[in-house]
Amino acid sequence: MSKVFPYLLVVAMGIVLCLVLRNGCGKDSAIQKIQDSLNVEKAINDTIKIALSTSHKVFDSTSHKNTSDSIRYTRKIDSQSHIIAVLQGKFKVTKDSLWNSYNQLKVFYLNHDTVALAQTYENLSSQLTEANNELFAIQIARDSADNIREAEITRLRGVVVDLQGQVVQLQDLLKQSTDNSSSLAKTAQKAIKKQKINALLAKVGTGIAVILGVILIAHH
Q1: pLDDT tens digits, 125-148
Q2: The domain containing residue 176 runs over which residues?
Q3: What is the total count of domains within the chain?
Q4: d(Cα 151, Cα 147) in Å, to the nearest integer?
Q5: Which candidate, 204, 179, 218, 200, places its Cα nearest to that of 41?
Q6: Are 10 and 206 in contact (CB under 8 A)?
Q7: Contact, 85 vs 69, CB < 8 A?
Q8: CATH code of residue 132
Q9: What is d(CA 15, CA 141) in angstroms, rounded to the nearest whole number?
Q10: What is the tens place of the pLDDT at every residue in 146-158?
Q11: Which candidate, 181, 149, 157, 156, places its Cα nearest to that of 80?
Q12: Which candidate, 11, 51, 103, 108, has a CA 20 to 30 Å from the CA of 186?
């Protein structure tokens, strides 16, 4: 029994030494800190995912609305352009009639045809009034088209500003995601490093126990 006791003592010392080495480095505390860090970083990552999802929905909404507004603008400006073209066509007819009536005035005047001359003056006056009204209608239609274009330009500027804000938000989220990924990688590296240290300490404790046993045997 006296010969066995030293060996049992060596084994006991090795076990105690392993426990002291591992517990001395605060294994449980370190693992808990790493777990806490992972939980925080996971929560941040979940928040970023939600923010990205919301941002994508806002972008889709902006894109959809812009498409609808662009289609509406195209229809309105096409309709207004058609109105202007019709009014210009009518004015061209009236203008040709004016020149025709004006040329007839000279003929009737030279022929001393007072009845035809008076009728032509009356027709010319009516045509001038009609031409003036048509020009006024064309101007109103053009002003309306200009207002439609200006409103579209203002709308597009708003879309650009909105998209710029969304880009800035996405850049910020990308930076947060990158930073969080880097933090996750560092935390993972710490966990791996801690695991390696614990494994090494276990090996060191076992090695020391063996060395103590060899020394003890050598002295007996």
Answers
A1: 899 999 999 999 999 999 999 999
A2: 4-218
A3: 1
A4: 6
A5: 179
A6: no
A7: no
A8: 1.10.287
A9: 98
A10: 999 999 999 999 9
A11: 149
A12: 51
